[in-house]
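Reading a protein record of the kind used here takes only a little practice. An example makes this concrete, so a full record is given next.
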Amino acid sequence: MVAPTGWMRNKEGLGVWEHRGKVAVAGVGHSPMDRRWDEKLEHTLGAYSIIAAQRAAADAGIKLDDIDGVLSCPGPLGDNWAPRPYFDPPYDSEDGITKVTAEWLTRGLGLKNTKWVHSYDSHVGPEWGLGAQAVGDGLCTTLLMLYPTGNLPGRYHHEMDNHARGPNQWLNLWSWGGISQWAYSFNEYCRRYNSNHDRLAPFVVNSRRNGLMFDWSYYAVHQPEPFTKEDYLAARWVCKPMSLFDADRPVQHSTAYIITTGERAKAMKQPPVYILNHAQGQNKVRSSVETIEETEEWTARLARILYEGAGLGPADIDIFNPYDGYTLFTQYWLEAFGWHGVKKGEAHDFYAGDISVEGPHPFMSSGGNNGTGRTRTAIYTDCIEQLRGTAGKRQVNVRAETAVAGCVLPQNNGHIVFGKHPS
């Protein structure tokens, strides 16, 4: 079935979201996590997605037959995994192996009562908005939302066979232009605000520390040793001023959530976490490289859209988990949202303070992608767990009644506001 039209909240002036507090998150499930797929069926994205879905349903205390909607961002649609050998049928296509459509997941789980099934060709940020809107609009009442992310040896982001030919010889020298884009923007940021790369160290070290507190994160399972400032500063450059530890680590993993109506959530196993608003957007830039002015204007605009629809302001947000696929652009979100009073050019000073989960400014309590592995979902899961009071060692000491998370890049993003209470 097709997705509803006109669901995006991507401009100012829309007012408070019509479903504010009427939609809730009731379940969370994470699969095991590996660095790469090792070509075993039990480690495919399909197998991991089944595990994540089952865990999300169990977390919510529901049966699989209670699910009447399935939504998935199928996975590496832009990445060219093929040609490569397949298994025997029915494992003779990418679906269920290196990507997972909603249709495949419905069949794989044997779901019998679905009435809305949709595979969304985007990423987890806007997917959250689509899922919340689908439940709010009544397309389904108990939605299983999946986000799988895969990684094959030597194939990641090699989506352009001609990446060094034609215009791409100038735009995508390393296969994807975002690497040089954000290195350039970060240099501009540092020149404008008199800062430098090394001032990111407290932020990156704190993120790894927080990520280690998730028992399922890549680093907790595979690389649990402490990460220090010296480790960060000694990293090799990828594209100066972007070092190896400024980029998240691609992994093999699936995450699932159960989204339902606020009323149904009250009868489920976990305390409901309500959705207060969602916002999406894509910035259009004047040239091949987004300028710092464009980034700052766009991120501020999305913050205004999100606050408006939730009926909240910067002082009302307790937990803040912006996207950190590259640590070089996380400061734009921090400054745009004005979290804990941070203004333009002040993010690196803020990093130097107490941003630990025990302190007064528990920034990125999830650890983000850099602290857990490139799931793109830890930021949402942490918001949910902080508001439930089930974050364990990551549980903050400040008030935890509202939370914001968003993904992915500043110029193409989807954010969401969670609330412990519906109003």
Residues 389 and 395 are 7 Å apart (CA to CA). The chain has a mean pLDDT of 92. The longest helix spans residues 292-310.
